Amino acid sequence: MHMKKIFCCWLLLSVVASAAAQQKWKKGILVDEFIFEKASFPQSHASTIAETPEGLIAAWFGGTREGYKDVCIWTSHLVNGKWTAPEMAADGVMNDTLRYACYNPVLYQEPGGDLLLFYKIGPNVAGWTGWMKRSKDNGHTWSQREALPAGFLGPIKNKPLLLDGKLLCGSSTEKDGWKVHIETTADWGKTWTKSADINDGKIVSAIQPSFLTYKDGRLQILCRSKNRSINESWSNDGGLTWSAMTASELPNNNSGTDAVTLKDGRQLLVYNHVKPADSLPNGKGARTPLNVAISKDGKTWYAALVLEDSPISQYSYPSVIQSKDGMVHIVYTWRRERIKYVQIDPKKLKLKKIKDGQWPGAPSIFPKGEGKVEE
How far is CA 191 from its chain centroid? Predict the structure, then answer.
């Protein structure tokens, strides 16, 4: 009983302290809301966001539970400041007798062209296949689905990068270790090529890369890993070849991240600033708090925002873009129940350097990486 009281007091103090810290890390947030309050499906995850000529559109997978056959891809549009009711954009029905789950949608707006929707269908991650749909009306209606070529999955979680007329898609596989590669299409998904694996998948594990660009032409990818760190690699030749993948100074809890290069040249990253305990298998840690950091060079990072820091459940799998008006838009999973939307003015962010991988001034909710670990 005594230990229970101590734990309850510690948890209460942690919540109070983290709430106080959260107030310090809210400068620049303009909108913070749910895309929907209620839906026909109990779980939602892996959201994505894009800007069409008409405005913002978000997508995610929703159903009974990740991997269940009823999991479909859903979309919502931001119209006059309000998100529309979720509409189904894709399902995993293969034929009259076979149906699989859908996973990890990725939206991409072709400049002056179609809105693309990439996603996966399969019985599980190891067995999923890559698919895509196209929309000519900003995501209100969609084409019949198209299968990507055998062995291609498209962008695995995060948005592609358009470079010199080619769409670079950060992809990864999880069958024989976690390995990252780049898939490229020069004709909006009709034909594809792919790079070699960038990491070995054994000692250095990584999936779900996001792209950052630099004024000198270099590219950087930041990846989820099992190594308790966000892993990175660099390219000096437009993504044809990549440096050996290494650990960045930022922690990773074996959960998805996303990043975007801002118009002013700074890099913005959304991630869980959580370093799991050495004892936790596969580097899995709690998916809270959810943080935003800024960098000029992709190496030294500055704390900017704490989007969520409740010790309850998870806040994870962010997707981030910058719209034409300069605002930053983030969507992410809220407790696996709903999708949250946040709008940020990047010019109003207050920054403080992250030293030795520690978020400045904020006590850890789970100081040793403890806490509920979720898939």
Answer: 25
CB-based contacts of 305: which residues, under 8 Å, 6+ apart?
25, 26, 27, 28, 29, 291, 292, 344, 349
DSSP state of 78: E
Euclidean distance between CA atoms 163 and 300, whole angstroms: 25
What are 212-256's pLDDT values in tens digits? 999 999 999 999 999 999 999 999 999 999 999 999 999 999 999
> What integer pLDDT is reported at residue 66 of this predicted model?
98
Nearest in space to 105 (alpha carbons), one of 137, 71, 79 = 71
Q: How far apart are the first and last CA of the chain?
A: 31
* Long-range pairs, 188-195, Cβ under 8 A, ≥24: 188/110, 188/113, 188/114, 188/116, 189/116, 189/118, 189/132, 189/134, 189/146, 189/148, 189/154, 192/148, 192/149, 192/152, 194/151, 194/152, 195/239, 195/240, 195/241, 195/242
Contact 362, 306 (CB under 8 A): yes
Q: In the block, which residue shows the tokens 């044809």?
A: 240
Q: Of 205, 114, 211, which is closest to residue 157 (Cα–Cα)?
A: 211
H or E segment to which residue 156 belongs: none
Task: Name which of 102, 85, 84 is nearest 145 in CA terms.
Answer: 102
Does residue 24 sit in helix, strand or coil?
A: helix
Q: What is the distance between the alpha carbons of residues 346 and 7, in angstroms, rounded to a whole number?
A: 38
8's CB contacts (< 8 A; 6+ apart) are none
* 344-359 tens-digit pLDDT: 999 999 999 999 999 9
Contact assessment for residue 221 and residue 210, using Cβ atoms and an 8 Å cutoff? yes
Q: Select from 167, 294, 299, 302 the least CA-distant residue to 239.
A: 167
| Cis? peptide before 111, omega within 30° of 0 | no
